[in-house]
Amino acid sequence: MVVIRLARGGAKKRPFFNIVVADSHARRDGRFIERLGFYNPVAAGGEQPLRIAFDRVAHWTGHGAKVSTTVARLLTQAKAKASA
Predict the structure, then answer these.
(1) 50-74 pLDDT, tens per residue?
(2) Which residue range forms the structural domain that includes residue 53?
(3) The whole model's pTM is what?
(4) Ranges of H-type helices in the chain
(5) How far apart are CA 67 and CA 20, in angstroms?
(6) What is the C-alpha to C-alpha distance for residues 59 and 65, in angstroms, rounded to an integer?
(7) How many domains does the chain have?
(8) pLDDT digits (tens, 9 = 90+) for 10-51
(9) Nearest to 2 by CA among 50, 69, 73, 68
(10) Distance separating alpha carbons of residues 77 and 27, to the nearest angstrom
(11) Are the beta carbons of 1 and 66 closer than 8 angstroms?
(12) How far is Cα 16 from Cα 35, in angstroms, rounded to an integer?
């Protein structure tokens, strides 16, 4: 099964997450199929905290990919921010 989830990067105490499409059996930070965006929870100043390619998310969900709960929450936040 294919899933859209977060893959952690960054340093200790400075998390950074890539939003990726991966096989559900792959490790969290391991092999992935495509990178759809990123989430930076500790963004400061002019840094962008969240970027998502909605067209690619729609493509993968149309092909049967499941979205993790955290990514689903981030998608709703990004859609609300884009419409505001």
Answers:
(1) 999 999 999 999 999 999 999 999 9
(2) 2-83
(3) 0.92
(4) 54-62, 69-83
(5) 10
(6) 9
(7) 1
(8) 999 999 999 999 999 988 888 999 999 999 999 888 889 999
(9) 68
(10) 26
(11) yes
(12) 14
The pair phi, psi for residue 40, each rounded to 5°, is -120, 95
Amino acid letter, 39 = Y
Query: How far is it, in rounded angstroms, from Cα 84 to Cα 70?
Result: 21
Quickly list DSSP for 4-22. EEEEEEEETTEEEEEEEEE
Task: Return the pLDDT at 1.
Answer: 92
Q: What is the pLDDT of residue 76?
A: 95
Please calculate the CA angle 33-34-39 and round it to the nearest 5 degrees: 125
CATH code at position 36: 3.30.1320.10
